[in-house]
């Protein structure tokens, strides 16, 4: 697919926000899905070769536009940050399994770092039919973005940073009180944060827990097997491998084998 870059701006020296016009993409996009985007405009340059997976941050059905929040961490995202307005950019269709939506529930939405990106589209959708509390965490002030937008789509919002530069000092999961008052918890962000959220809900059977995992992906469609994770198969009571891009990125957080998912960061 192709679309026109309506806006592409740096929010600070760490994050950028791109808005793309593509009515065809927007009408099919669901909260929790992602795309594989080409980070350069010229086909004769093959470095970087692979497209980059990015979560869909928001959509505007009326305007036929969608937005992507990206962290500038390598050559691909640096090139992405340099793409000018009105450029035509190439990307995939919406990929992956979306979040399961609900109605008339009390929701906790927990996000950290660039993992907050898909949480905006999710909370905006959930807010129409649910009570939504947003818990937003980051390492420092630069990681706390788009709070004015989140405030529009949340009943309450609490913020934390590791260094205390914004909000309460500490981890975002420390902000969550009375966890058993929620019907469902959604989360996306660093794996240690997701595991900490799992520890909050694992023994409360009444709470549904969905997470969106961020893994390195080469193809985004399940062919390369580069984003394997491990989950507990309730049917066979054995551990099985699944592809984050094809079977995910949204999973039942209570089925994930967190010690294996977080292994690289232990």
Distance between the termini: 39 Å
Report the uncertain regions. none
Largest sheet: 7 strands, mixed
Number of strands: 16
What share of residues are in beta strands?
25-35%
Cα gyration radius (Å): 18 Å
| Order of secondary-structure elements | EEHEEEEHEEHEHEEEHEEEEH
Reading side by side through the largest sheet, how are the strands ordered? 11-10-9-8-12-13-16
Helix content: 10-25%
> Per the principal axes of the C-alpha atoms, what is the gross shape?
globular
State the secondary-structure class.
alpha/beta
Q: Please, how many helices?
A: 6
Mean pLDDT: 92
Short synopsis of the structure:
The protein is of the alpha/beta class. It has helices spanning 23-28, 75-81, 117-126, 147-152, 191-201, 258-261; strands at residues 2-10, 15-21, 34-37, 52-55, 58-60, 65-71, 88-90, 106-112, 131-138, 156-161, 168-169, 184-188, 208-212, 228-233, 238-243, 250-252. 17% of the residues lie in helices and 32% in strands.
What distinguishing features does this structure have?
16 strands, globular, 266 residues, 7-stranded mixed beta sheet, alpha/beta, 5-stranded antiparallel beta sheet
Structural notes for this entry:
The chain is of the alpha/beta class and 266 residues long. The strands form four sheets. It has a seven-stranded mixed sheet, sandwiched between helices. A five-stranded antiparallel sheet has the order 5-6-2-1-7. The mean pLDDT is 92. The radius of gyration is 18 Å and the shape is globular. It contains six helices and 16 strands. Strand 5 (58-60) and strand 6 (65-71) form a beta hairpin.
């Amino acid at each position: 697919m192709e679309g026109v870059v309506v806006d592409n701006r740096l929010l600070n020296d760490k994050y950028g926000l791109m808005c793309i016009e593509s009515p065809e993409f927007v009408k099919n996009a669901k909260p929790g899905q992602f795309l594989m985007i080409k980070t350069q405009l010229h086909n004769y340059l093959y470095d970087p070769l692979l497209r980059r997976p990015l979560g869909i941050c928001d959509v505007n059905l009326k305007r036929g536009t969608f937005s992507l929040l990206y962290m500038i961490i390598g050559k691909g995202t640096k090139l992405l940050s340099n793409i000018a307005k009105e450029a035509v950019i190439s990307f995939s269709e919406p990929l992956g399994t979306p979040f399961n939506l609900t109605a008339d529930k009390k929701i906790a939405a927990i996000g950290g770092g660039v993992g907050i990106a898909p949480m905006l589209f999710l909370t905006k959708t959930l807010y129409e039919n649910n009570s939504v509390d947003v818990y937003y965490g980051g390492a420092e002030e630069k990681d706390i973005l788009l709070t004015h937008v989140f405030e529009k789509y949340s009943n309450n919002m609490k913020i934390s940073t590791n260094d205390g530069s914004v909000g309460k000092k500490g981890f975002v999961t420390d902000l969550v009180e009375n966890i058993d008052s929620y019907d469902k918890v959604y989360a996306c962000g660093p794996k240690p944060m997701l595991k900490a959220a799992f520890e909050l809900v694992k023994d409360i059977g009444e709470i549904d827990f969905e997470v969106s995992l961020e893994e390195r992906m080469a193809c985004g469609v399940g062919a390369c097997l580069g984003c394997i994770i491990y989950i507990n198969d309730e049917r066979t009571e054995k551990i099985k491998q699944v592809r984050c891009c094809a079977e995910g990125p949204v999973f039942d957080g209570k089925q994930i084998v967190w010690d294996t998912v977080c292994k690289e960061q232990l």
